[in-house]
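re the bet — no i am not wrong, look at it urself. input seq straight from the record:
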Amino acid sequence: MVYDGVEVPPVFAVFPHSILAYSFSKDLSLAGERIGYIGINPQNPDPKALFDAMSFSNRILGFVNPVALMQRLIVDMHHLVVGVDELKERRDALYEALTSMGYQLAKPQGAFYLFPQCPIEDDVAFCQAAAEKLLLIVPGRGFGRAGHFRMSYSSIAMPQIQRALPIFLELAQQFGLQ
């Protein structure tokens, strides 16, 4: 999922020791569903050892595997994708609105997340203030981005975004951006 004409080169052609992790949850906008696959570059000098290590890690770390029904259904769904144009529309609406309110953030060229900088240093406190206004955003520190917050626009419709924007404006004013 990329926007604005961005092209992603095939990783196997660029990095011989690479793996490709693919998630259907992204293509189908199914946040939280952990179903996909990992491809090992055929040029890897020991693909069996890497496969065995990944299989072992999956078992001992306790990752939840999708139910058998989903594993069977996904085979017939791999050609489906969420509308990239819809995601781009959501991204653009949120980006334009948030930057006009004074939030600092990079415009993503792919995926469906924004990582704005919080107007205060404590990202947890900022997210708690948002939650008090019934706006769910996640502290960035859980993703290695302390002082930022993370928000997904994967499965929310434009009317929900429009309802959230006044809350972001209230927060911007409350914490000194406006």
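see?? The first helix runs from residue 11 to 14. told u. also The mean pLDDT is 86. so pay up
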